[in-house]
Design a protein that fits this description.
Helix content is about 10%, strand content about 25%. It has a nine-stranded antiparallel β-sheet. Bound molecules: MU-OXO-diiron (FEO) and calcium ion (2 copies).
Length: about 725
C-alpha cells in the first residue's frame, strides 16, 4: 500500500503506516556501542561455513516422478552468481501511463481486479455492476505479494515446472478510487451494506492456475485449483497462542478459529510447497468505541495502544457500520457483551498473523501460525532449506520505528515433507523460537529471543506482565520493546540470496528521524548506524520531506555457529542521482536512481529485483523495478551519512550492478514479483494506478486508465490493479 493516500474528498484516509505506535525507550545506538565495544566483531569477506554447505545442496529437493502425485525432483543447482550479467538497456524514468520495459520485451496482463476466475459470472463491465457475492469468484483488488508454484500433470507441487503452475496473489486492500463500486464509495458515516460485502470479498488472496502455451501465458478459467480466500474465510489458529483467551470471540469461544485474512501485503512460501500470506494494515478495517477503556484491564489497554487501536478510533472502512449482523458487527473490536466469548472485543488480536495456505488443496483450511508472532507483518521470507537444519523465516513489522524478526523451527528439514501441505506446516511452523533484531553500530548484530521466562519476558515486566508464550506472541511488539530491539525505518520486503543465504530487507523511508543535533520529542528518533540518514528533500526551493525520504536496503549474514549473531551492512541507499554525496551514498546515476524501495525478490540465479512504492521522486518518475547483482556483506566500508552518522555501506552501485528494468503507469506502486524457474516468464503487480486523483465516474475521468492504456492510448476505462506478465520476444531468459 502506498505511503500517501490522497483519497476522494469527504472520505476518511487509509490507515497510515507512518503512524507511530512504538513509545518504548529502547537504547540509542551510542549507548549500545559503549556497551559492546568489548565484543566488537570485524566484518570479513568470504562465505560462511553454513553458506558453503548450502552451495553444495539444492534449495528444494523432493521424491517421486512427474507422473506421480508425489512432488518431482528439484532442478539442478543454478549457475554460479558470477556468471550473471545484466543484459538489457536501462529504461528511462518517465511519467507515462504505461508499463515501460526494455527493447525486446513483451508486456501482457494476466488478470486484473474483477476478472472472473470461473465460468458463470460476467466479465468485468467497467461500471461497478458486479455483485458482492461474485467477488468470491473474481480476482480481488490491490494486487500485492505473490508466488509461483509449479504444478505437475498429476496435480502435485513440481518446483521446476514453468509452463503450468498455480499463482497465489495477495489482494491487499480496496483501492481508494473504489473502482469496485458503481460511482465510488458512497459518502456518509454509515456504510452501504452491499459495498461493504463486496469489499470483504475483494480482500484476501487469489489462487489461479496459469498455463504457458507458446508465447502466451494465461489464467486457466474454471480450473479446480482456482480459489478465493477472503476476509470472511474460516481459518484455524495453530501454535502456542491457539486457545488463548485473547483470541476468543463469539465465533470461536475456544479461540481455535477465526474468519478472514486482511490487508495481505507481502508473502512468503515454504519449501514444502505452501503459500504464506501476511497481514499488515488490518487497522484499515477495525474500529473501537469511545469509552471502551473503562471496560478493559490495564494489560488489555497497553496491548491495544501498542497495536494502534486506542479507544474511540474509527477505521477508514467503517465496515462495522453497515449492519448489525455478524458479517459487519465483528469489525467493532469493543466490549459489547458479558464476556469475550459473547462479542468481538478480541477482533484486533485475530489479525496481524502469518497465514499458511495450501494452494494444491482448494478445500483445505488456512492456518494462522501464531508461533511467528503478531505485528504488522509485511512478509515472511525463508532461508534456503538445508536437510537436517531448522527452517528459518525472516519477517518485518512495517510501521515506523518497528522491528525485524526471525523464526527458527524446532523441527529439522526433511525433504520427504515436500508436498505434505498443512501437515508439514504444522510440523515446522507451530513450534520454534522467535527472535527480534538488534543492529549494533560496529556492524555486528544480535537476535534477541522472544521466549516466555527468558530475558525478563514474564510477569515482572513493568510495561506488560507476560503470562505465557501465547501472551508473548500475541503481544510480540511489547516483548521486543523489553529486549531493546532496533527501531527501523519501516521494514518492507525481505529476500534471501539463493546460494550464499545473505538476507536483504528494504527500509522504505521514515519521516520520523530527526537531525543528529536535534532533541527528539515524542516518538521521534535520531539516526543510528543501521538507519543512518537525516536530510531534507528540497523540491522547487522548499523542503518537501525530511528524515529518510528515499529509504535504504540493509543486509546481513548470519553467524555460521551462533543462531543469535549476525553481521550487517547497508547494501544500497535510495537517492536521486543529483543528491549530495552523503545522501547518494551508493553513487546512483540516471540509469539506476530510485526512491523508497519496497518489493524485493531474488530469482534462482541470484539476480535481485527491487520495486518501489514512492512519494518522494514521483515529481520526476512513476514507480519502478530495477534488476541488481549484489556482492556480499562487507564489500564496501565505513561511510558518513547525511546528518553526520557513521554507518557501514556496501560497494557503490554501477550500471552493471543495478539497472532500471521497468517503470509503471501513473500513480501506481510496483509490488509483488514471481518468476518461473526457467527464468523466462516474470510476473509483477501494478497496484492502485490512478490512486492519487479524484475520479469522475460519470465522465470516466481518472488519474490513470491503465491497464486499458497499455494497448489503447485513448482508452477511458477505470484504472485497475493487475498482474503483468513479462517475456522476451526472442524467448530468452529475463534480465540477462
Ligand atoms: Fe503494504 Fe508495507 O506495504
Ligand atoms: Ca510501501
Ligand atoms: Ca509493501
Amino acid at each position: 500500500m502506498s505511503k500517501q493516500h490522497d483519497i476522494v474528498a469527504s472520505q476518511v484516509n487509509e490507515y497510515d503506516e507512518d503512524v507511530v505506535v512504538n513509545p518504548s525507550s529502547n537504547p540509542h545506538f551510542d549507548d549500545i556501542l559503549a556497551a559492546r565495544l568489548s565484543r566488537r566483531v570485524a566484518l570479513k569477506g568470504g562465505i560462511s561455513t553454513t553458506a558453503a554447505a548450502l552451495l553444495g545442496g539444492s534449495i528444494l529437493s523432493a521424491c517421486g516422478g512427474s507422473d506421480d502425485p508425489a512432488p518431482t525432483p528439484a532442478p539442478a543447482p543454478p549457475p554460479a552468481p558470477a556468471a550473471l550479467k545484466i543484459g538489457f538497456n536501462a529504461v528511462a524514468k518517465n511519467k507515462n501511463d504505461l508499463v515501460t520495459v526494455p527493447d525486446g520485451y513483451n508486456v501482457s496482463i494476466l488478470h486484473a481486479v474483477g476478472d472472473p476466475m470461473h465460468f458463470g459470472d460476467l466479465s468485468w463491465q467497467d461500471d461497478g455492476s458486479e455483485s458482492a457475492d461474485s467477488y468470491n469468484r473474481r480476482i480481488g483488488d490491490g494486487h500485492d505479494g505473490m508466488y509461483w508454484f509449479g504444478l505437475s500433470d498429476a496435480g502435485a507441487y513440481q518446483a521446476d515446472r514453468s509452463d503450468r503452475g498455480l499463482l497465489a496473489v495477495n489482494h491487499e486492500y480496496v483501492v481508494a478510487p473504489y473502482v469496485l463500486h458503481p460511482a465510488g464509495r458512497a459518502a456518509g458515516a454509515t456504510r452501504n451494506a452491499t459495498e461493504v460485502e463486496k469489499e470483504i470479498y475483494a480482500h484476501g488472496v487469489s489462487i489461479v492456475e496459469v498455463k504457458r502455451d507458446g508465447g502466451n501465458t494465461t489464467m486457466v478459467r474454471g480450473s479446480r485449483y482456482n480459489r478465493r480466500v477472503t476476509s470472511a474465510t474460516t481459518m484455524d489458529f495453530t501454535g502456542p497462542a491457539r486457545g488463548n483467551a485473547q483470541l476468543a470471540t463469539l465465533f470461536s469461544t475456544g479461540a481455535t478459529q477465526t474468519r478472514g485474512t486482511n490487508n495481505n501485503c507481502a508473502n512468503g512460501y515454504t519449501p514444502w510447497g505452501t503459500y504464506l500470506t501476511c497481514e499488515e494494515n488490518y487497522l484499515n478495517v477495525i474500529s473501537r468505541a469511545a469509552g471502551d477503556d473503562a471496560q478493559r484491564s490495564a494489560k488489555e489497554i497497553a496491548s491495544l495502544n501498542r497495536y494502534g487501536l486506542p479507544q474511540n478510533r474509527k477505521s477508514p472502512y467503517l465496515w462495522e457500520t453497515a449492519g448489525s449482523t455478524d458479517l459487519y458487527a465483528r469489525w467493532n473490536s469493543s466490549v459489547t457483551g458479558a464476556a469475550a466469548t459473547a462479542d468481538y472485543r478480541n477482533t484486533i488480536n485475530t489479525f496481524g498473523w502469518v497465514v499458511e495456505i495450501d494452494p494444491f488443496a482448494p478445500d483445505s483450511t488456512p492456518a494462522k501460525r501464531t508461533a511467528l508472532g503478531r505485528f504488522n507483518h509485511e512478509g515472511a521470507w525463508p532461508a534456503p532449506a538445508v536437510a537436517g537444519k531448522p527452517i528459518v523465516i525472516y519477517m518485518g513489522d512495517d510501521s515506523r520505528n518497528e522491528y525485524i524478526y526471525k523464526f527458527v523451527s524446532k523441527a529439522n528439514w526433511d525433504a520427504a515433507d515436500v508436498g505434505k501441505g498443512m501437515a508439514a506446516g504444522a510440523k515446522y511452523l507451530d513450534e520454534g523460537t522467535l527472535y527480534v533484531a538488534r543492529f549494533n553500530a560496529d556492524g555486528s548484530g544480535d537476535w534477541l529471543e522472544l521466549s516466555y521466562g527468558k530475558n525478563g519476558l514474564d510477569a515482572t515486566n513493568a510495561a506488560y506482565a507476560f503470562a505465557d508464550q501465547g501472551d508473548v506472541l500475541i503481544n510480540a511488539r511489547l516483548a521486543a520493546d523489553k529486549l531493546g530491539a532496533t527501531k527501523m525505518d519501516r521494514p518492507e520486503w525481505g529476500a534471501v540470496h539463493p546460494t550464499n543465504a545473505e538476507v536483504y530487507m528494504t527500509l522504505t523511508n521514515n519521516s520520523n528521524r530527526v537531525a543528529n543535533t536535534a532533541t527528539p520529542t515524542g516518538s521521534q528518533l535520531k539516526p543510528d548506524a543501521a538507519n543512518p540518514r537525516y536530510y531534507e528533500d528540497i523540491k522547487g526551493g522548499t523542503t518537501s520531506q525530511k528524515g529518510n525520504p528515499n529509504g535504504h536496503i540493509i543486509r546481513w549474514r548470519e553467524s555460521a555457529t551462533d543462531v543469535t549473531k549476525l553481521n550487517w551492512d547497508i547494501y544500497l541507499f535510495g537517492a536521486e542521482s543529483t543528491a549530495a554525496a552523503d545522501v547518494n551514498l551508493s553513487s546512483l546515476t540516471d540509469v539506476n536512481d530510485f526512491s523508497s524501495p519496497d518489493g524485493l525478490f531474488f530469482d534462482k540465479r541470484g539476480m535481485l529485483w527491487i520495486q518501489t512504492d514512492d512519494g518522494a521522486y514521483t515529481d520526476v518518475t512513476n514507480c519502478m523495478m530495477l534488476a541488481a547483482i549484489p556482492g556480499k556483506v562487507g564489500d564496501g566500508g565505513k561511510a558518513n551519512a547525511a546528518g553526520g552518522t557513521s554507518t557501514i555501506a556496501g560497494a557503490k552501485a554501477t550500471a552493471d550492478t543495478v539497472r532500471r528494468f521497468l517503470v509503471g503507469p501513473k500513480e501506481c506502486e510496483i509490488t509483488g514479483i514471481a518468476m518461473t524457474p526457467d527464468n523466462k516468464t516474470l510476473f509483477f503487480n501494478v497496484q492502485h494506478p490512478g490512486e492519487d486523483s479524484t475520479p469522475d465516474f460519470a465522465a470516466k475521468t481518472f488519474g490513470s486508465y491503465w491497464p486499458a492504456s497499455q494497448s489503447d492510448a485513448t482508452a477511458k476505462k477505470r484504472p485497475r490493479s493487475a498482474t503483468v506478465v513479462i517475456t522476451r520476444k526472442d524467448n530468452g531468459d529475463i534480465g540477462v
